[in-house]
Amino acid sequence: MLGYIGRRAYHSIISLIGLLTLVFFLTRLTGDPSALYLPLDSSLEAREAFARLNGLDQPIHVQFLQYLQNLLSLDFGQSLRQNRSAIDVALEAFPATLKLAFVAMTLATALAIVVGALAAARPGSLFDRTAGLVSLAGASTPDFWIAIVGILVFAVGLGILPTSGTGTGLHWIMPIAVLMLRPFGLLVQVVRGTMISALASPYIKTAHAKGMMRRKIIFGHALRNSLLPVITVAGDLATGLINGAVVVETIFGWPGIGKLMIDSIIQRDFAVVQSTILVTAVAIFIVNIAIDLLYVTLDPRIRY
Amino acid sequence: MAIKSVHIVAGAMFLSGLAGHATAQNASEINIVLPEQPANLEPCGTIITNVGQILSRNVVEPLTVIDPANGQATPSLATQWTQTDPNTWRLKLREGVKFQDGAAFDAEAVKYSIERMTGGKVTCSNIAKFGAAKLTVTVVDDLTVEIKSDKPQPILPTLLSVVMVVSPNTPADKAVNDPIGTGPFKLASFTPQTVVLESFDGYWGKKPAITKASYVWRPESSIRAAMVETGEADLTPSIAIQDATNPDTDFAYLNSETTAMRIDAGFAPLDDVRIRKALNLAIDWEGLAQLFGDDVQRASQMVVVGINGHDDKLAPWTFDAEQARALIAEAKAAGVPVDTEIELIGRNGIYPNGTEAMEAMMAMWQDVGLNVKLTMLDVNDWLRYLQKPFPEGRGPNLLQMMHDNNKGDAAFTIPIFYTSEGSYSTVREPALDKEIADAMAATGEDRTTRFKAIFNKVHDELALDIPMFHMIGYTRVGTRLDWKPDITTNSEIPLANIGIKN
């Protein structure tokens, strides 16, 4: 297992270098930051001085070599926007996203498994049809719309939740609810589909014939064997959330890495873009490893 | 049943324990929600809205302050000023002022602040207002400085309104996020979620009614408006017109911004003045104004009332489609290629209904026979067309733009738009260059008269652009505050001017 993790880490480092190289050149294609950091009526001299001050007057290959050299000494550059270390800016924002994504994903998965399993147990029932409708709506309703309606109803109308921000437990409720809606919707569909297949399997029929309790058959046998595809989809959705719940973070003023990444791209804050990509790529690598390890736990036939 | 009740009560107690998120605050403490996170807290960047609204006249103070009513420089840290020769100004500084870190405010501190600003080691947005001027500061005595410029600066006192004086302990070679000034408030904390300012006991002026101000940022206008409505915040600037629905809390104010279309006069058919006039005449201005709100004002020039050089008597173009068609026909008969495609370049999100305004204007121009095609660009692409050097291979184009001048003088507007060297200018008129240079060197009434003449010439004779509207900003102010926004609100919100109602 350790060998497997080592191999994955080695491949991930190569991918990471490729990714950072690509990001370095792509960000530079967006244009000259001085147009954004200096007032519109700045003189050409002022813009040239800005470029000199930030090393942007050098040819791009020289800038790239400098970047690689700095990486070796773990210098990820300075944020143009915030006047401080870019990696500090990224690492400061990351836990906020991670916490939000973890809670939302855990709740969405747990709820989806229960709802999906119960719906699959009685296909065509009222519960199944209601769950189908709700999950479809959850998977397809735009985040920003739900967020704004949620604020209007629960903050402005009823006055029971804060509009946005962080600080108290109440501040978590709306961002998590909005963030978990889409994963919940998709996962209910996946759980239901795989459970229906599993429940039609011969080993389930055998269990029935042996007189095993229905609850044990559904949750003890069929569900366990249906979880692999669920984990695959949940893993993808989780990495999506880590990569940035941009809309939710923007609307609710949540100081996470998704919003930071988008802001930094728009602001041409190159060092921060690179650092956010680095941090999220490493996190996604760790999530993927964790998913692989979960596979082994759930299905002993899998070996690495 | 009993167990269920216990759960409900416990849940309610838990929720009530979590609640109270925004209510537990002292009556003299306020929360302000801004549209954008400040990029940093460098005092040399206070002309940037999100920095200036927090720092300007709160943490750091300028040498002079512009009176929003008439654009004149009034005392702040400098109390008097005299021009000793065309290139030199002598300033008397305020007595009894100290910095928030205990350092003395004196002539040396002013010299240090100006040299930090002009030294080139810190990215300083404010210095842009000085153009290419080179300044030399000399200490005359403890409370007197002399500022010399390499060329005459008739409006130096006005320019000094962007010189934010910082403690001599501020590093000269790097931008800071922990500014120390002489203002009535000192920085208590700056995190990715909030900036907190607390009143400074050693302030030289009147003690403000507010003791603490916390700033947060939310980009969505509707969320910010809701925050004030629910009491989570006390004040938010720049809400969208559709959110300004409560006459008790929402104030409209002329925000010093003017929207216009720049005509790229370097290409046919736009190099013909008849076509440029036709572009102005073809717009149903009354109809277009519906997209901008009831309080908006028609513009005839690129600066608002109160800016030195604004001409009240200069009338905006009126709608006359027939005359527009006649001018186009006349130009066509004279050999102007009026059928050439003209690119109308808009900027996504420039202001509410900005895209709809472009679509409406395109339709009106097509209606009088011009071949106009709309392209909407994001800000980065749009900037390439706004500023020199312009993109290679561009053709005749009209550029949607918005210009902000709340600095009291048309010197911050006319040169960049209308001189051959102006960074936004597509014009090359040596005679106009000369007139502008003369106006820039003039002082007093003569300066005002010359600026007015230039605005008239640009409008009536040359029709170099299409002034649209002087824009209106909307600010929501909670009912417990006694404060109204004005033309300066886009660049500063002086907390000392905010009162608390009983």
Automatic annotation (TrEMBL), chain B:
<dbReference type="GO" id="GO:1904680">
    <property type="term" value="F:peptide transmembrane transporter activity"/>
</dbReference>
<keyword id="KW-0732">Signal</keyword>
<dbReference type="InterPro" id="IPR023765">
    <property type="entry name" value="SBP_5_CS"/>
</dbReference>
<feature type="domain" description="Solute-binding protein family 5">
    <location>
        <begin position="74"/>
        <end position="382"/>
    </location>
</feature>
<feature type="signal peptide">
    <location>
        <begin position="1"/>
        <end position="24"/>
    </location>
</feature>
<dbReference type="InterPro" id="IPR000914">
    <property type="entry name" value="SBP_5_dom"/>
</dbReference>
<dbReference type="GO" id="GO:0043190">
    <property type="term" value="C:ATP-binding cassette (ABC) transporter complex"/>
</dbReference>
<dbReference type="InterPro" id="IPR039424">
    <property type="entry name" value="SBP_5"/>
</dbReference>
<protein>
    <submittedName>
        <fullName>Peptide/nickel transport system substrate-binding protein</fullName>
    </submittedName>
</protein>
<dbReference type="GO" id="GO:0015833">
    <property type="term" value="P:peptide transport"/>
</dbReference>
<dbReference type="Pfam" id="PF00496">
    <property type="entry name" value="SBP_bac_5"/>
</dbReference>
<comment type="similarity">
    <text>Belongs to the bacterial solute-binding protein 5 family.</text>
</comment>
<dbReference type="InterPro" id="IPR030678">
    <property type="entry name" value="Peptide/Ni-bd"/>
</dbReference>
<dbReference type="GO" id="GO:0030288">
    <property type="term" value="C:outer membrane-bounded periplasmic space"/>
</dbReference>
